[in-house]
């Protein structure tokens, strides 16, 4: 379960550490965080934590699930790879999930972000209003 405490104490610090390692010269400077509008991501403690780390949150328009790469790419790919598999326990499931995530290629991520930009422009064209069809 994602809670505000877990998000601030575990998730975001790990993300920021990894980003800082990848961006050795700039670290977190200029980073814009794009997550969703889930309640644990929008509470005061999270906003304070982001401000303390000088991270700009990118605010999704309301009712825009079509803008979250995890929703339109990652979850679908993982679901397809793991469909029909029965797991003996949580560890077996986590191992299979890690392998599925590890099998994603640079092209998968490039295509994901190419699609994300198309979706963002569609949202801009719709003045932030909800839309159902991409094309």
Characterise the protein shown here.
The chain has 135 residues and is mostly helical. It folds into two domains: 4-58, no CATH class; 65-126, no CATH class. The protein is built from five helices and two strands. The protein has helices at residues 4-22, 44-52, 69-82, 90-102, 106-125, and strands spanning 32-34, 56-58. Strands 1-2 form a two-stranded parallel sheet. Helix 3 crosses helix 4 (90-102). 1% of the residues are buried.
Residue share in helix? 55-70%
Total number of β-strand segments? 2
Order of strands across the biggest sheet?
Answer: 1-2
Low-confidence stretches: none
Count of runs of 4 or more consecutive helical residues: 5
Overall SS class:
mainly alpha
The ordered H/E elements are HEHEHHH
- State the distance separating the first and last CA atoms: 34 Å
> Per the principal axes of the C-alpha atoms, what is the gross shape?
globular
Supply Rg: 17 Å
**Integer count of domains:** 2
Determine the strand fraction and express it as a percent band. under 5%
Oligomer designation: single chain
What's the pLDDT, averaged over the residues? 83
């Amino acid at each position: 379960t994602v809670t505000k405490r877990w998000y601030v104490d575990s998730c975001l610090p790990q993300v920021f550490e990894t980003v800082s390692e990848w961006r050795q010269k700039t670290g977190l400077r200029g980073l814009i965080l794009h997550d969703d509008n889930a309640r644990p991501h929008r509470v005061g403690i999270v906003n304070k934590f982001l401000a303390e780390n000088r991270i700009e949150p990118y605010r999704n328009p309301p009712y825009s699930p079509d803008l979250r790469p995890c929703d339109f790419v990652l979850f679908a790919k993982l679901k397809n790879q793991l469909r029909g598999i029965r797991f003996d326990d949580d560890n077996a499931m986590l191992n299979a999930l890690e392998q599925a995530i590890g099998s994603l290629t640079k092209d998968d991520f490039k295509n994901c972000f190419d699609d994300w930009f198309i979706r963002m422009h569609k949202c801009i064209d719709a003045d932030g209003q909800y839309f159902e069809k991409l094309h």
